[in-house]
Write a structure and sequence with these properties.
- The chain is α/β, with parallel strands linked by helices and 302 residues long.
- It is built from ten helices and eleven strands.
- It has three domains: 85 residues, Arc Repressor Mutant, subunit A, CATH 1.10.10.10; 97 residues, D-Maltodextrin-Binding Protein, domain 2, CATH 3.40.190.10; 102 residues, D-Maltodextrin-Binding Protein, domain 2, CATH 3.40.190.
- The strands form three sheets. Strands 3, 4, 5, 6, 9, 10 and 11 form a seven-stranded mixed β-sheet that branches. A two-stranded antiparallel sheet has the order 1-2.
- α1 crosses α4 and α2 crosses α3.
Length: 302
């Protein structure tokens, strides 16, 4: 890799992503000969052919595919380092973008943020997203931090575990027109309206959970609306236990959990991109969340 420059790697990456030298030149605001020369010198320095130029569109060789993957990782690291340096030069970030997912306990999470941001000049952009919306924002570089359940095996993210959230299937008294004397089955619930949360992802595949195929549905934007719909006897659905514990205790809601509707438990976390640009305020917020994580225990007995 002696002599290889970031400029060469950016030119090579642009050719691959744009599908040609001219398109890469336009993207990088360079001339076609400049891009072509940079990639040619890169290949000579490496001693390998990265691009197949025999077709109408240039394509990666087998060696080029492997090298391009590693080059992209390095370029992301460089971009993150540049952003971090800019944040350091500024002293503190002018703004932070935080996304709260639909299963989060708002009083606890917002209270955590309030205590941290009290007296700070950093502008907090706070967003609410549901289902796969928080993940999409994070991976699209539309968020510096999210509070949501995550895939903990995803190597792209760092995370801090916060709390367990139990999801339980609930109905209002009188919603069922049959005696709840035993296990409620999916067949018994198939003709009854099921309330679900709308996935706020814009281009990612839409995700739905606990759906009974063929059942009528009522779709809402958040858990508060969903809870009210269920309390009013308009539909049934799965709710975070911490949101309905009091209603289950005083009889305003009934659990139909059992063999056919076991519910689920998810782990909420604070998450950020591992290779992202984390300035001084974002880093202090991350450390503060880690210190306070144990205080967000949310499991309630029904």
């Amino acid at each position: 890799m002696k002599g290889v420059t970031i400029h060469q790697l950016r030119c090579f990456d642009a050719v691959v992503e744009e599908g040609g030298f001219q398109a890469a030149a336009e993207k990088l605001h360079r001339t076609h000969p400049t891009i072509s020369a940079a990639v040619k010198v890169l290949e000579e320095q490496l001693g390998i052919c990265l691009l197949d130029r025999s077709g109408y569109r240039v394509t990666l060789t087998e060696a080029g595919q492997a090298f391009h993957h590693r080059a992209q990782l390095l370029l992301r690291e460089v971009e993150g380092l540049g952003g971090f340096a800019a944040n350091l030069a500024a002293g503190e970030e002018s703004e932070l973008r935080v996304v709260i997912g639909d299963l989060c306990p708002l009083p606890e999470i917002v209270g955590l943020l309030r205590k941290f941001f009290d007296g700070r000049k950093t502008h907090l952009h706070l967003h609410f997203e549901a289902i796969s919306g928080p993940w999409e924002r994070l991976f699209d570089d539309g968020a510096d931090l999210i509070f949501h359940h995550i895939d903990q095996s995803d190597a792209r993210i760092d995370f801090i575990e916060l709390s367990a959230v139990r999801l339980v299937p609930v109905v209002a008294p009188g919603f069922l027109d049959f005696p709840k004397s035993g296990e409620v089955t999916q067949r018994q619930m198939r003709d009854r309206v099921q309330c679900i949360i709308r996935d706020t992802a814009r281009h990612s595949p839409q995700q739905n959970y606990f759906l009974i195929d063929g059942s009528p549905r009522c779709t809402v934007d958040d858990q508060f609306m969903k809870k009210e719909i269920i309390l009013q006897g308009m539909a049934w659905g799965h709710m975070p236990l911490f949101m309905v514990a009091q209603e289950l205790q005083d009889g305003r809601l009934l659990s139909i959990a059992g063999k056919h509707f076991p519910g689920n438990s998810v782990r909420l976390a604070a998450a950020r991109l591992r290779n992202g640009s984390h300035g001084p305020v974002a880093s202090r917020l991350w450390d503060y969340i880690a210190e306070q994580a144990n205080s967000l225990a949310l499991e309630h007995a029904p």
